[in-house]
Amino acid sequence: MTTTEPFPAVAAPHPARPIRTFHPRRGRMSGRQTAALEQLWPAYGLRVADAAPFDPVGLFGRRAPLVLEIGSGMGDTTVEMAAVDPDRDYLAVEVHTPGIANLLDLVHRRGLGNVRIAEGDALDLVGLLPPDSLDAVHVFFPDPWPKLRHHKRRLIQPAHVALLRSRLAVGGTLHCATDWAEYAESMRVTLDGDPGLVNPHGGYAPRPAHRPVTRFERRALAAGRPIADLLYRKV
Q1: Residue 143 falls in the annotated catalytic set
Q2: 158 preceded by a cis bond (ω within 30 of 0)
Q3: Which domains does the chain have, with CATH numbers?
Q4: Going by C-beta distance under 8 Å and a sequence separation of 6 or more, which residues neighbour residue 105?
Q5: pTM for the structure as a whole
Q6: Which residues are annotated as a binding site for S-adenosyl-L-methionine?
Q7: What keywords are annotated for this sequence in UniProt (predicted)?
Q8: Do residues 85 and 135 make contact, with C-beta atoms less than 8 angstroms apart?
Q9: What kind and span of H or E run contains 47?
Q10: Model pLDDT for residues 87-135, shown as the tens digit of each residue
């Protein structure tokens, strides 16, 4: 594995879904992150392109409820939630190499055995999961793609939500959060329109105590952008 290109180039889009919901970024990495990627990837990482067939028991070494974290960023939220929730396994999916490396380092430093990191398109990974196999899906601060012509790239749209919901077990939760007001309303309308999801709060949810406050969230609040949480349950 090299320090400059630890993963092969992102594969060409699947013909059935040519529009990606993310923009791949490499970015610069610190020496600590580079070392973490080189040394810890074999123990904690997998590439989405190599994940078929997906075997969570083989991946985590046990059978436990599985949480899918889409877009884990630098990994702070994933690590904090997994650390206080040892009875569930957390699978974080990310495309940003420095974020993957940082999460690997955090997981190792905290000694967490219930976290694994996947590199690649989360929707491709979801397509490999068996129906009803997830206890929760977390979508925290996805790219809002604010320009109208880019709205088609948004993660939370009807077809994607239907796919995510199909992988949730009955009673499982889909938890979204955003600091972009227009996207929050679009999310709410989309999630309300899915026939297999219910909103126990009837609108935006009170901020859940179990979702850690990240640096990104603090910056958003300082800039005057309120945070919207949306919690839905599969029925």
Answers
A1: yes
A2: no
A3: 31-234 (3.40.50.150)
A4: 32, 33, 36, 40
A5: 0.87
A6: 69, 94, 121, 143
A7: Methyltransferase, S-adenosyl-L-methionine, Transferase, tRNA processing
A8: no
A9: strand 45-47
A10: 999 999 999 999 999 999 999 999 999 999 999 999 999 999 999 999 9
